[in-house]
Amino acid sequence: MRAIGIILAGGNNRKMRELSHKRAVCAMPIAGSYRSIDFTLSNMSNSHIQKVAVLTQYNASSLHEHLSSSKWWDFGRKQGGLYVYTPAVTAQNSNWYRGTADAIYQNLDFLRSSHEPYVLVASGDGVYKMDFNKMMEYHIEKKADITVVCRDMPPKANLERFGSIRMNEESRIEEFEEKPLQAKSRVISCGIYILRRRQLIEMVEKCIEEDRYDFVRDILIRYKDVKRIYGYKIRDYWRNIASVEDYYGTNMDFLKPEVRNYFFKQYPDIYSKVDDLAPAKYNVGASVRNSLISSGCIVNGAVENSVVFKKSYIGNNCVIKNSIILNDVYIGDNTYIENCILESHSTIRANSRYVEEDGQVRIVVERNERYTM
Amino acid sequence: MGVLTQYQPLRLNAHIGIGIPWDLDRNIGGVSVLPPYERSSNSEWYTGTANAIYQNLEYMESYHPDYVLILSGDHIYKMDYELMLDFHKANNADVTIAVMPVPMEEASRFGIMITDEKRRITDFEEKPGNPRSNLASMGIYIFNWKTLKKALIAMAQKPALDFGKHVIPYCHRKGAFLYAYEFNGYWKDVGTLHSYWEANMELINIVPEFNLYEEYWKIYTKSEIQPPQYFSADSVVETSIIGEGTDIYGKVYHSVIGCGVTIGKDTVVRDSIIMNQTQIGNHCELNKAIVDEDVRIGDYVRLGVGAAVENEIAPHIYNHDLVTVGERSVVPNGITVGKNAVIFGITTGLDYENSCLPSGKSLIKAGEQL
What we know:
- The structure holds two protein chains of two kinds.
- By secondary structure, chain A is α/β, with parallel strands linked by helices.
- Chain A has helices at 36-46, 61-66, 100-106, 108-112, 132-141, 197-209, 215-223, 244-253, 257-265; strands spanning 3-8, 29-30, 34-35, 51-55, 81-85, 118-123, 126-128, 146-152, 163-167, 173-178, 187-196, 229-233, 238-240, 280-282, 287-289, 291-293, 298-299, 302-304, 307-308, 313-314, 319-321, 324-325, 330-331, 336-338, 340-342, 347-348, 353-355, 362-364.
- Chain A contains nine helices and 28 strands.
- By secondary structure, chain B is α/β, with parallel strands linked by helices.
- Chain B has helices spanning 9-16, 49-54, 57-61, 81-90, 145-154, 163-173, 193-202, and strands at residues 2-4, 32-34, 67-70, 75-77, 95-101, 111-115, 121-126, 135-144, 178-182, 187-189, 229-231, 236-238, 240-242, 247-248, 251-253, 256-257, 262-263, 268-270, 273-274, 279-280, 285-287, 289-291, 296-297, 302-303, 323-325, 330-331, 336-337, 342-344, 356-357, 362-364.
- The chains are: A alpha/beta, B alpha/beta.
């Protein structure tokens, strides 16, 4: 594909509550075995984009660890590859990324030194599959300056945290509001854009000259009447995970056979870093119902309607219901957990009880000593 | 590292690839797969373990080694070869053979090394009636390169050249320093169906002797399948280990299930090994079955039922009441299969009499599995 990729992975989000204390949203574990950024990275790899930059800033260390080798997404190449950029102090600049446009500006050399005519800019917190080649064809066919991936949201969904879009019958975007309190349309932006590389360089340079730093506010919204900005609708599964409710919901979606089938069984695959874990083990007394369990887990208790990530240990007589257990959690015997998200590396003492009422999600972070209990 | 392959190499070649899972995809060194090849004169298959090494002298020479470590690929153990090499160097040995103490009454099943108090090998016996020692050779050798090269060239004409039978005795005769390096961890040869089954079943124990869950000294493998495993609302699982991407709708007891497997509704699997990508239908019953990769088993199939009858063709292979289903085989709906039976190939209802393959029978439709 004649495009380079840029993944904006720097953002923080208060809506993730305690879950973002230790990691960037893009590094959030998803569906037992993946991390959020795997979906965008795999889509780029499967669309044959050869060169991808990941721009990180907030709490990036777990993301950096995840991206420590590029071979899992097939980016380990001589030509192109995977580049991870954090803000750096230079002779000209000593700022953090002041916004998404600034993040691109501070890495403008990456854009300048590439030769591909197009750039695909995407966020790293979406769970979806997409062939960007089709989007590119659409972009060219529409003679668009910028194409924005957008989606019809169901009537009840909360749209407060999305960009709201109104298009004409040609799919040209006429209105674009960033995170309106009262959205005028059910169409939202998915945070995925295609535009020409030179166009992006020009726009970002202009932005910074005027002390503007945000890609959506200062490029998309500001230019929407002078540039041809088109919407490209994604009709398959797409979900953004950047709030606790959506994060919980996205993981629970994977208990549905059609979602599992779409992501796990249908071509193309989603890739992730390989951990070399042993198969999951079920001892006497284990009982697992309608749940996903990942490799490296040891299960002695009951698990129901839950997603258990890698390397977790569930003790005897435990009951885990409607919950998400992140990586490497130790749950002592006789513990009852319902409607919770257990932060990774937590150690839960035996005989504990963590319950939240239905419809709510409680985040549990327990830093007990694991081996002296 | 060279991997010598000959028998049905495709699966192994695909598994090894360029060695990524084991961090062997290197610029310098790395892994090479070495099958036998045609040369201007004297082309032959690998006729014995040492003959296979002999045919790759050039490969070894190109790395200018001081030592050569020779291993088998069908053993299950964790070993730091560095320690064995330290031992080899410290003793100024020419050849070091890894040995394991076995119970005296079992010693007659192994190649036995007799050593002095400094672990220098003074004599050896292949499957002795009255063993003089209980140190069994594990088939793991470190050779000084010069010693190995000399021995292989000198013995080159021997048919079916073998380490245990020819090369080690030759070195001993020539007065080389042979030492035995004692290993005391878990070690299992999985060269037979029953030992393979047993080794797998041992992994299910609460704390298995061979612990896959330790952070240190992990066992690496290629994982093509990454998603988690799914259990339906009416599934049951107990005392089992299960691989990635497997969907369980039925009941699994005391079994080892690979990756990407589907086990249908109301199917009961007991004491069995189910390998990667195999699909098992609904309402089946499997007892002590070893089901290879990519097998399709229909609905209402029962494996491993009835009386125990010795296998008619190869009782030394198919025994201990195990039922074996070969790679990419197909078993249609409603079939009942007895114990010590084996199925291989794409079978249809017409291959079975009264939808049944009695205990001890073999149904092999070789060549049709593609």
